[in-house]
Amino acid sequence: MSISRTYNPKETEDKWYKYWLEKAFFKSVPDEREPYTIVIPPPNVTGVLHMGHMLNNTIQDVLIRRARMLGKNACWVPGTDHASIATEAKVVAMLKERGIEKKDISREEFLKYAWEWKEKYGGIILKQLEKLGASCDWDRTSFTMDEALSEAVTDTFIHLYKKGLVYRGVRMVNWDPKGLTAVSDEEVIRKEVNQKLYYIKYKVSGSEEYLVIATTRPETIMADTAICINPHDERYSHLKGKKVLIPLINREIPVIEDEYVDVAFGTGCLKVTPAHDLNDYELGLKHNLPVIDILNDDGTLNDKAEILIGVERFAARKKIAELLEEAEQLEKVEDYKSQIGFSERTDSAIEPKLSLQWFCKMDVMAKPALEYVLNGDVKLIPDKFINTYRHWMENVKDWCISRQLWWGQRIPAWYYKNEVVVAKSKDEAVEQLLLAESRNGLSDEEKAAFKEEAKSLISQDEDVVDTWFSSWLWPISVFDPSVCGHPENPGNADLNYYYPTNDLVTAPEILFFWVARMIMAGHEFKGEVPFKNVYLTGIVRDKLGRKMSKSLGNSPDPIDLIDKYGADGVRVGMLLCSPAGNDLMFDESYCEQGRNFANKIWNAFRLVKGWEIDTQLGAANEAAVEWFDNRFNEALAEIEDNFAQYRLSEALMASYKLVWDDFCSWYLEMVKPAYQQPVDQFTYKATKEFFERILKLLHPFMPFLTEELWHDDEIFASRSELDCCIVSNYPVSVDVKKGLLKNVEVVKQVISEVRNIRNSKQISPKESLPLSVKINSEIPYQRYSGIINKLANLSEFIVVTEKVQGATSFMSDRDEFFVVLQGSLDVEAERERISKEIKYLKGFLKSVDAKLSNERFVNNAKAEVVDNERKKKADAEAKILILEEGLSAIK
Fold first, then answer.
1. If you write DSSP's letter for every residue of 402-458 in order, what string do you get?
2. What CA–CA distance (Å, rounded) separates 295 from 316?
3. 680 three-state secondary structure
């Protein structure tokens, strides 16, 4: 295979991805191997690839590719989430473009349009993941609205209802007035907004006194049912038991007392509006206050408001302020900043609203889900999130699972007159109605008549379940949806082989909304955890620390990045700056660094490929080969340890340094033949084997480049169709010779010092220099003399027993080296250089002495740590002594 001067990702990526698919390398079926399973956090079917997806799926692909190379049966299940609110919004927008209003068509017609939209646009993000190199088993692609998965949701609802864990009731929910649906806490985005604080005068009944109350929502005063004061606030103690009049409508409401009131906020009085504030609702329950809901579902005022009926809430706010001012009941208005919740999908300000909805009890289900994490059955990575998880689970509230939408799994509840039954179908619902106690004595004829009447009158709930109510079943339903809702079902072969899955890679912000609920569902239907490890990624931010978003215009298009830097370059760039659980400050320069790394590997390969081999030459470079063999295994052990602790960024950086620094900058320089000279067979064979190991090591991070080089038939000979890097055996680390590695580090330091002397003295790299060494250590310099001579360009390298007068000297380990320069030595410059080094070493020695004089450190630190500090002290003292002798010898 001919190899171009520069790496061209476009020529390799589509080729190898297609090849991997054709050879079914991503496909997994149960066998005798150990399974390694990941289920993808299903992206919204409405979505396109963004930077968060890029990070999340790169991490998953690294883990799955490495597991595959370790000989495990790697299965990565892809799929998408039907995203009820987002998809319905897209379909409604599409219909508007066609001149169709949702309210003018039937549910069935709307769903036809929704499926049409899904088939046209729903697969975009999965195709984009292919560009990234995601090695998913595409034959297993699932969609949360697939027929079998939807049936699983229905069965789960019925199962939990029968257990008393699902119920219907009026509760306070997050209401989206634009989307006309309840939304989950996760779908509410908190934003700091500029508001006004209105100071409103409430007249105390039977007096001329006014009570001033500060509020940001004057449009809700008509829903007030009490004024609350702190019982310890002496300013208002005279108002206990009194009543006040609501401005504009003059309805009388009581003054109540509760320590909940913050005496320092506003005027220290609180208007209590149970229908329109969650905290007020809880206060209302505690004090048995009435609830007056003055808002329609679309955010306009209803007739309970008594005034401004039909006016939109924010327009009403302005109008109320004007009316209050006209009535001389507005004392003042101040600028004020506060956090407001907005619907993630419609960007409409969320309205706390009492609503008749379906709920799932969480307290019972949360207990085992918490224990799994606290016991370590599910590991959160990093573990700093355990406390957050514990807080959520110990303060869990019931989950509102109904949504006022058409796209989604319809709630299997049926209504007949005043009766409610939960059943899978209309016929089953009618049969349940027949079982009611009031119909026990019906004759067969009466039962038949009832059935006919019931079938004509019964109706199914119009709502659908929350999308999370389907995705919490994901680790089970993608393998065997029939188990969901049926814990007695033993499950099929796939579920029993792949479940529980191994690693889940997701974002911390859905730790409760999705991760915790999957653990609950796993316990409920399988009696065990759904995954063993949860790797929590950080938020992708720009270099200014801002979260990347389309609205800010600071988020690059991932596909554009891939086109510019190649998939491997982007993968490396993302991972270089992504420590687990911590936000990453992304800059496009990281992708450029990734591309440069790919080019570095490519050029190193070209270098080796260009060597001519002379089989008559004797084996050379044994020392360099032995060193890199050990260095590779040392780095591999570090990389394996990083993987074991899910430090993927550190694993990549260790691989990066091994290849760029140790292999390219040192090893290849040690062994490459002189210009237009051949290389010996031993060196070539060893270098080729090292390259093969490097390709295996890098494949999980850089799959396309490594596969391309793997198939170079000039270096590696022709490979079979199935002999691919993707399924090659991952390297196995062996014990290393630590003494040898330490010796070569000293050798590298010697070479660097000679090079530094050249640079400082402006001596040409082509000019050979003599080097002498006065040895105090056990380092066998004769073994590495060839490397030192070559890389330092020496005319001679000899051992001496005395100091070389008039030479430039330096220390490495405990040995003193001397370079005799042609011409006179700049005595003052040399004295200054040695003096600076002595000053530095004395400062270092002072810090070591401080540690060793600290009794707490000496008594509590590990013995090897203390011994290491003592060794540092001895080495520094020896170097200082030698340097001081050298300084005194300069004349």
1. EES-SSSPBP-EEEETTEEEE-SSHHHHHHHHHTSGGGTT--HHHHHHHHHHHHHH-
2. 11
3. strand
- Give CA–CA dist 368/164, Å, rounded: 17
Architecture of the 770-889 domain: Orthogonal Bundle (1.10)
Q: Prior bond to 475 cis, omega within 30?
A: no
As a whole number, mean pLDDT of residues 698-712 equals 97
**CB-CB neighbours of 292 under 10 Å:** 18
Residue type at 588 in one-letter notation: E
Instruction: In whole angstroms, give the CA distance from residue 61 to residue 73.
Output: 14
Residues 171-209: tens digit of each pLDDT: 889 999 988 888 887 778 889 999 999 999 999 999 999
Q: Which two tokens stand for residue 24?
A: 């079914």
pTM metric for this prediction: 0.85
Residues 6+ positions from 487 with CB-CB distance below 8 Å = 159, 524, 525, 526, 527
Q: Tell me whether the omega of the peptide bond preceding residue 382 falls within 30 degrees of 0, making it cis.
A: yes
Quote the CA–CA distance of 218 and 200 in Å, as a whole number: 8
Q: CA end-to-end span of the chain, whole Å? A: 62
Residues 6+ apart with CB under 8 A from 372: 378, 519, 523, 529
Whether residue 885 is predicted with pLDDT greater than 80 in this model: the reply is no
Give residue 550's pLDDT.
Answer: 64
Length of the chain: 891
> CA dihedral defined by 302, 307, 311, 313, rounded to 10 degrees?
-80
Q: Please give the angle made by the CA atoms of 829, 835 and 837, to the nearest 5 degrees.
A: 105
Domain residue spans of the chain:
176-353, 425-460, 558-736, 770-889
Q: How far apart are CA 787 and CA 497, in angstroms?
A: 54
**Backbone phi and psi for residue 79, each to the nearest 5 degrees, phi listed first:** 165, 175
pLDDT of residue 344: 81
Q: Which of 69-78, 544-553, 719-728 has the lowest mean pLDDT?
A: 544-553
pLDDT for position 824: 45
Read off the pLDDT of residues 212-236 as tens digits, 9 standing for 90 and up.
999 999 999 999 999 999 999 999 9
- Cα–Cα distance list, 386 to 370, 505, 511, 569 (Å): 9, 16, 10, 34
Query: At residue 464, what are phi and psi to the nearest 5 degrees?
Result: -115, 165
The Cα-based distances of 449 to 315, 428, 434, 437 in angstroms read 54, 16, 11, 17
Class of domain 176-353: alpha beta
Mean pLDDT of 108-135: 94
Give the least confident one: 136-150, 155-169, 536-550, 832-846.
Answer: 536-550
- Indicate the pairing of strand 459-460 with strand 73-77: unpaired
| Calpha distance 356→354 (Å, rounded) | 7
* CATH (residue range 558-736): 1.10.730.10
Q: Confirm if 370 and 393 have CB atoms less than 8 A apart.
A: yes
Cβ atoms of 608 and 688 closer than 8 Å: yes
Over residues 399-426, mean pLDDT? 95
What's the pLDDT at 228? 95
pLDDT in tens, 532-563: 999 999 888 877 788 877 666 778 889 999 99
pLDDT at 764 over 90: no
Asked if 176-353 and 770-889 have one fold, the answer is no
Q: What region, left, alpha or beta, does residue 34 occupy, with left being phi > 0 and alpha being psi -120 to 50 degrees?
A: beta
Residue 432 burial by CB count (10 A; 0-12/13-18/19+): exposed, middle or buried?
middle
Describe the strand order of the beta sheet including 399-400 as a list of residue ranges. Answer: 181-183, 166-176, 351-360, 399-400
Residue 679, pLDDT above cutoff 80 = yes
Which of 702, 616, 621, 618 is closest to 659 using CA atoms? 702
In whole angstroms, what is the distance from residue 483 CA to residue 499 CA?
12
